[in-house]
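User: Please predict the structure of the protein below. I'd like the answer in structure-token form so I can feed it into my own downstream comparison script.

Assistant: Understood. Taking the following sequence of 198 residues as input:
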Amino acid sequence: MSTRVTIVDAYDSFVHILVDYVRQLDCEVRVVRRNAADLFAAIDPEVCDVILLGPGPGHPSDSGYLQLLEHNRKQLPVFGVCLGHQAIGLYYGAKLAYAEHLVHGKTSLVHHDGLGCFAGLPAQGIRAMRYHSIIVDRKSLPPCLTATATASGDGYLMGLRHNRFAVEGVQFHPESIGTEYGMEIIRNFIKSYHKDSR
């Protein structure tokens, strides 16, 4: 049986690429807007195995993602991209900050811990595409969250993982052509946390 992935669209211009990536992994994909009336129905465990919180403009506190995470209550695995990553950090108690320099359409070398969504990736790091002005403040991470990746140069947090629950996020865009191993990152998360996808 295919893994059923609900991708929550926060009105991002390139969400269709993320959808295509997940479909290439032989997953059954459902896309729902972040403010859709049927949002909670789309993440019900009866119809969904994995939640993917997509990127998008704006602040995480206005995205509806915090309410979604509260509704999910750790039932299903959650993978957050950019805005989704920030929302995960905020939901679990981290603080957000505005980056000193905007990073829009630039690649960085990202160093990672080789676990979870980064399993099997080159130990020397990967190039990743970044589009963001907000960051999760690494120093503010609560004990339940682990920093999994950082950007070379500015040192900003590029990945986080919950220590008990199937929750991970990446600040960069795995769906971008400018990101190395983007497909593998998404595949790793799904395989790590959804047993039927192995």
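That's the full token string. Residues 114 and 123 are 7 Å apart (CA to CA).
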